[in-house]
Amino acid sequence: MAKSTGREPAAKKPDDAAKPPVVREPAAPPAPAKRGPAKSVQGAALDGRPWHESHLAMVRRARRINRELAEVYPYAHPELDFENPFQLLVATVLSAQTTDLRVNQTTPALFAAYPTPEDLAAAPPEELEELIRPTGFFRAKARSLLGLSAALRDRFGGEVPGKLDDLVSLPGVGRKTAFVVLGNAFGVPGITVDTHFGRLVRRWKWTEETDPEKVEAAVAAIFPKKDWTMLSHRVIFHGRRICHSRKPACGACPIAPLCPSYGEGETDPEKARKLLKYEKGGFPGQRLKPPPDYPGLAAPEAGPR
Questions:
Q1: What is the rounded CA–CA span in Å between residue 20 and residue 57?
Q2: Is 223 known as a binding-site position?
């Protein structure tokens, strides 16, 4: 028998290149043969055993998830139709407590009637409320739109400002809305913590925080600033298409081997495929005017009211 040295062998450092490749095809389930031992980052959740990892291992796993999502959703983009910063700001305010599709079906008539901040600031409240009624909470949203439009007219020369502090000073504009506008209209990196983003980063054990600002800070510490905007799009895309709130399609998830919460949803591949939404399920997306590289179908315009 070999003489014990009294020291345990050093733990093997995580090495992405040495691990089995992650299945990238959304419809394919993770292969049982590729499951590692319980201590490996890839195999722990798939084996149903406790998930243990250091902070460094979590950061590496989080960045790998981002790389995988970049390959799954190379076309990730904001799912609100807009042609300028003002339209994006208005659409984002309207998107609270409703779908981007509903907003996209509502804004064409709104922007045709009130194309500038000056026009919108002078809109009769009752007419504005009627135009945005389909988005829900229309009275409160109308007050916000009238207030922010007047502020843009009076304080910013009718232009949407490109600074966070200025944006959040506008009525009805919080950090989430501000980062949507900054990232997609001005190219300023920001993390958009909506319900999908918060849900997924907690499922992935990047943070246990629930307050949006604390979630934002925790995730910002994991990724380089240059990645923040596209990371937000990819995570939100994944939350809408595969990792749903009530019944995630775990059996059709391309990053299942990296997910500590694998098994919370449907793991059967065939059943999971039936849960896929938008282009992943062969259905129209949320934009009436999607980007040229979007692989899905354009959303339908609103029907008669």
A1: 17
A2: no
Position 280: which residue type? Answer: K
pTM of the model: 0.83
Phi (first) and psi of residue 297, to 5 degrees: -90, 150
CB 238 within 8 Å of CB 69: yes
Q: Is 74 annotated to bind ligand?
A: no
CA 138 and chain centroid, separation: 24
Q: Is 253 annotated as a binding residue?
A: yes
284 φ, ψ to 5°?
Answer: -60, 155
Q: How far apart are CA 135 and CA 97, in angstroms?
A: 8
Residue 250 marked in a binding site: yes
Gyration radius from the chain CA atoms:
22
Give yes or no: 141 in active site: no
Distances (CA, A) of 186 to 13, 74, 77, 168: 40, 20, 14, 15
Catalytic-labelled residue, pool 16, 194, 205, 271: 194
Which residue's entry shows tokens 């009238």? 146
Selecting among 100, 141, 176, 227, the annotated active-site residue is 176
Q: Is 176 a catalytic residue?
A: yes
Q: What is the pLDDT of residues 53-84, one digit of tens each?
A: 999 999 999 999 999 999 999 999 999 999 99
